[in-house]
Amino acid sequence: MTEFNQFYPCVVPLIGSRYEGKSNFMPAAWQTGLSKAPMTYCVSIAPKRYTHSLIKSSGVFSVNFIDFKYLKLLVRLGSASGRDVDKIKDSGIELKQSVKLDVPVFKYSYAAYECSVQETIKAGDHDLFIGSIIYIHETDEIRNGSGTIDYHVVKPILYLGKDTYAAMDPSSVITIKRDR
Ligand SMILES: Cc1cc2nc3c(=O)[nH]c(=O)nc-3n(C[C@H](O)[C@H](O)[C@H](O)COP(=O)(O)O)c2cc1C
Fold first, then answer.
1. Among the atoms of ligand 1, which is closest to the Cα of residue 80?
2. In a domain, 180, yes or no
């Protein structure tokens, strides 16, 4: 069988969802930014996930970017379904107040988006939820002088496929200006 992991590494945020008082998080490696104006973000979620049914019902979701130190939590959230267990309670996850939408926001994310679903597109065995970013949370002091994230301060979780992860080595970061 041909492997389908040539495109890794991917950053893995936690996708937060909530409907009728039930809140949940799951990790999703298949996600990306799509547009700057309006700011648009897309996440690819299999219909069998509990998260899928919550987002489908509520029309909103959060994208929570977390540091490598939360890797074990991420694996736990990706190993069980919110359909069977209250993962937020079980893992003792602390939330912070969302600002614009009724979505769970992980208190210790270094950045998080509150998104409102604009369109849902079927993509094989997954559905793409395309969301407008309505609000961006970001912790102080994660940026360097040039405005990029300082990877000495935060270490995104990179997924390599097959339950394998890496942290970014900040000494590998390089900026090369484009010719205009
Ligand atoms: C590193 C990692 C990345 C994942 N990426 C995705 C993804 O992009 N889309 C998806 O549908 N499931 C993905 N999963 C699987 C779900 O996170 C997992 O099935 C989770 O338990 C679903 O939880 P839920 O049923 O509470 O929504 C991923 C799991 C892991 C560990």
1. 21
2. no
